[in-house]
Structures are given as C-alpha cells and as structure tokens.
Amino acid sequence: MPLSRSSFAAAGGRAPAAEDRLAQRQRPAEPVIGRQRWNRLLFGHWAVEPAAIQATLPLGLQVDTFGGAAYVGVVPFRMERVRPAWLPPVPWLSWFLELNVRTYVHDAAGRPGVWFYSLDCNQPIAVALARTFFHLPYEHAAMRCAGSPDEGWDYACTRRGVGGAAARFAWRAGGPAVPAAPGTLEFFLVERYLLFAADARGGLYAGRVHHEPYRISRPEVTVWSAGPVAQAGLAVAGSPASWLAAEAVDVSIFPLRRM
User: What are phi and psi of 222, to 5 degrees?
Assistant: First the structure.
C-alpha cells in the first residue's frame, strides 16, 4: 500500500543531519553528462508553514525545514555555456535566461535537495529537452536581463499564455561575497546539489549537480515580484525573509536516476 504523506516519516523517513548536508558538496563518482555556468544569481525566499509545502509534494518526499519553517524561493539567473559534456557550447542555444520557483525537501534516506514548482525559460529547445528527459516543469517565457555588475541587473519574465504584468527583479550584489557557513539559514537555502523530479506517472527521480560552494552576498533589491510564486499556487505575504546574490559558478551535471 502506498504511504500517505502523514505516515511517511513514521515509516522510516528521517530529516537530514549536518553530515548529510555537507556530504552533498562532494563530487559524485559518476560520469558527467552536461556542463553549464550559472550567472547573475538572485535568491529571494519567504518562510511558509511546512504543512502548506508538504501538501504539494509527491509521496516519497518530505518538506525540509530550518528553525521550524519551510521556505519557498524565487531564483532568477542566466544560464551560460549549456551543453552535453562532450560538446562545445553553441551560440544562441547555450545561453539563455531562467527563473525558478522552488522549495526544499529530503527523501527517506535524509538526502536534502530541491523540488521545483516551475522553471521559466526563454529558450524553447531547452524547455522541450528538460521536460522530456529530466521531468522538470519548464515553461516557455519572454525574458530579458539588462545591466552590468557595477550598475546592477534588471530582470523581467512573462510566461507565455499567462496574462498580467511581468515579474521583475532589480538588484545589485553586495560585498564581500563569501561561502555560506554550515548551520546557517544561508547554507540551508543555497547549498543544494540534489534535485528531485517526478514523471507523469508519479515516478520519482533524483539528479546530482556539482559546483564550488556559492560565494554569496546580501544584495540591494529595489524591485521584486511574488508573481511567480502565486503562479505556482502558493501564497506568501510581505517581503522575502531573505535576499542573497551569488557569484557565477561552473556546474557539472550528472545522470538522473529513478528512485
């Protein structure tokens, strides 16, 4: 009999320990299947009730919490040099924008990771490939990002087929940028190297990425939107509890595995 959400923890699921979180930083002993660079990263997070998040998750995943709260985040950034590990990047195809709405979960073994509610993207081929081969809820969107590191970034996203104003974010990274300290809220929010995904039949998958720990700072954010979170069916109130900016990282992608 399938486990209900309420019985999952009692049946053997455990919350991640400190060593579980640190272990995710280690490079997997598997072949790299893709490479990419993540740049112009902004992380905005709201604290929410864990039960509200748990109700949205597939069986087999538990909401991950910090200080008794769950978190939902909106993350606009730029994808660069995206390609299979054995090929060079391709002009136009390998550079695009993305905005994801995510929360934090763990599996029965206590492995902490990310659950995505949506991933808006302005590269239609990337949308199709990610939906087909990685079972991720990508959506095609009209997007732009203008500015410079010194002046700051102005980012806008409008999902195709959805009315209303664009989700807009304007920020300038603070300084100095340093890695998040283990045990802090910042570490909980950004140090995530495992994603979970589900196929149309409810089958669960897990996939690892690897990169050097983010170097983060507290940005000056002058424009922001909770619209992408509302599109995911989640309610948040007020300003985000946390804003973080991160310097660019080079990322290795590893195979998606059926759980």
Answer: -105, -25
